């Protein structure tokens, strides 16, 4: 989903903000960085309740290091639960334990980390959710604790050579709405071969970003690509390594 690693202007409305999208909201406890709401997300195997910022527009901007000794303030796009993340989580739920149990899963630009939580509930292990924003990963960690799920939430940016991402090879890499520009797309192209196992898959949920067709075409020498539509105007692109 759009975390600090993503920039979603032009994307669709967050369905949960208006009470649509198979979820229900109510006031919640204090969150890691401010007031929270509880949102119950309806899933076939049973609802998953998460906490998320009560007012995403009131969340402070994130200080992001863009070069040595240089910081910029980036909008906290991670504070919303975006349609691509909801759609990816639903697709993982449909895959179920039969395809996820015991698999090593890495989520990039996780934002609030809903896909990681669903993967962990289906038995994936380990599950590591990454975002460049420490605030985002604090919310993911809080939700994992609340739900009794094993998700490691780590501050790491996929568009840099963060050593945390190279510690092992992953069976499944998840990302939602991260192809928001040429720099991010090129960074993802460089990263995926480094962090995936020989039989790995990449599940990329995308709301039709302009950069996506070019990026998919560039992957076809290394990966097979299959695409299917998901709810909320999102496509799921499934990439698998070629033999």
Automatic annotation (TrEMBL):
Keywords: Methyltransferase, Transferase. Residues 1-39 are annotated as: Disordered. It holds the Pfam family Methyltransf_16. Residues 24-36 have a biased composition (Low complexity). GO terms for molecular function: methyltransferase activity. Transmembrane segments: none annotated. SUPFAM superfamilies: S-adenosyl-L-methionine-dependent methyltransferases. The keyword Manganese does not apply. This is Lysine methyltransferase. It comes from Pseudonocardia ammonioxydans.
């Amino acid at each position: 989903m759009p975390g600090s690693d993503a920039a979603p202007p032009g994307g669709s409305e967050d369905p949960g903000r208006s009470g649509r999208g198979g979820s229900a909201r109510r006031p919640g406890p204090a969150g890691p960085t401010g007031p929270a709401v509880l949102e119950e997300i309806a899933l076939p195997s049973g609802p998953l309740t998460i906490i998320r910022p009560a007012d995403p527009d009131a969340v402070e901007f994130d200080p992001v290091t863009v070069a040595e000794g240089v910081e910029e303030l980036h909008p906290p796009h991670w504070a919303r639960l975006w349609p691509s993340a909801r759609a990816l989580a639903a697709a993982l739920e449909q895959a179920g334990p039969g395809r996820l149990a015991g698999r090593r899963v890495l989520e990039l630009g996780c934002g609030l980390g809903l896909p990681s939580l669903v993967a962990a509930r289906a038995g994936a292990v380990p599950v590591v959710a990454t975002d460049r924003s420490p605030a985002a990963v604090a919310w993911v960690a809080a939700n994992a604790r609340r739900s009794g799920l094993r998700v490691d939430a780590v501050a790491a940016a996929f568009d840099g050579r963060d050593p945390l991402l190279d510690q092992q090879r992953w069976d499944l890499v998840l990302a939602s709405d991260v192809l928001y520009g040429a720099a991010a797309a090129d960074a993802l192209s460089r990263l995926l071969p480094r962090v995936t196992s020989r039989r790995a898959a990449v599940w990329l949920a995308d709301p039709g970003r302009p950069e996506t067709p070019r990026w998919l075409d560039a992957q076809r020498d290394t990966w097979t690509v299959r695409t299917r539509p998901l709810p909320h105007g999102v496509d799921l692109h499934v990439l698998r390594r070629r033999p």
